[in-house]
Design a protein that fits this description.
With 207 residues, this protein is mostly beta strands. The chain has one domain: UDP N-Acetylglucosamine Acyltransferase, domain 1. The protein has no helices and 25 strands. It has a 9-stranded mixed sheet with strand order 1-4-7-10-13-16-19-21-22, with no helix packed on it. It is globular, with a radius of gyration of 18 Å.
């Protein structure tokens, strides 16, 4: 038995698949062949990972989430309880569309809130925040706060998960937790001035 990761006795892991060191797969999960899970991931109760799904490092997927073929989750993504991904735009029971799966990409650090739906074919940007119950039908910019049905942008979120206040006279938005500065470098494109989007936030020890 590979002790580098943990699989609860009630879970099913079909071979071949790749599971990274430190990953934990909890009660009643099912990981299907060809799936690739990175290091330090957590799959909560009743999570389904379909064939050939790619999941990065340090991804947390809460209870009752199905990640279907065609979906990719980059590093540090958070999926809230019962959030939904789809992989066919126009499903019909009588029509087989397995060859028409549409790709969905959730980029590094994004949060998908509880019961939110991400309709296939979109890209959710880095550190975007999809509010609980929202329905995402179009691409989402980095750091965007998306709320409602259908989801619309209602502001910006910091990498530490705080809604950013209105900009000051210089156009700077400051995270209340980290003090990091953000700015729209062009309209609709937010960047952090103090920490590159390509750099990971320093890991915090859990207490």
């Amino acid at each position: 038995m590979n002790q580098a990761y943990y699989v609860h006795p009630s879970a099913y892991v079909d071979e071949p698949c790749v599971i990274g060191t430190g990953t934990k797969i909890w009660h009643f999960c099912h990981v299907m062949p060809g799936a690739h899970l990175g290091e330090r991931c957590i799959l909560g109760q009743n999570v389904h990972i379909a064939n050939d799904v790619v999941i990065g490092n340090n991804v947390k997927i809460q209870n009752n989430v199905s990640v279907y073929t065609g979906v990719e989750l980059e590093d540090d993504v958070f999926c809230g309880p019962s959030c939904v991904f789809t992989n066919v735009i126009n499903p019909r029971s009588q029509i087989v569309r397995h060859h028409l799966y549409t790709r969905t990409l959730v980029r590094r650090g994004a949060t998908i809130g509880a019961n939110a739906t991400v309709v296939c074919g979109v890209t959710v940007g880095r550190y975007a925040f999809i509010g609980a119950g929202a329905v995402v039908r179009h691409d989402v910019p980095d750091y965007a706060l998306m709320l409602g049905v259908p989801a619309v942008q209602k502001g910006w979120m910091s990498r530490h998960g705080h809604r950013l206040p209105a900009p000051d006279k210089q156009g700077i938005l400051i995270c209340p937790e980290s003090g990091w500065r953000y700015q729209e470098v062009i309209p609709g494109v937010l960047r952090c001035l103090d920490w590159s989007e390509e750099q990971l936030i320093p890991r915090q020890e859990e207490h």
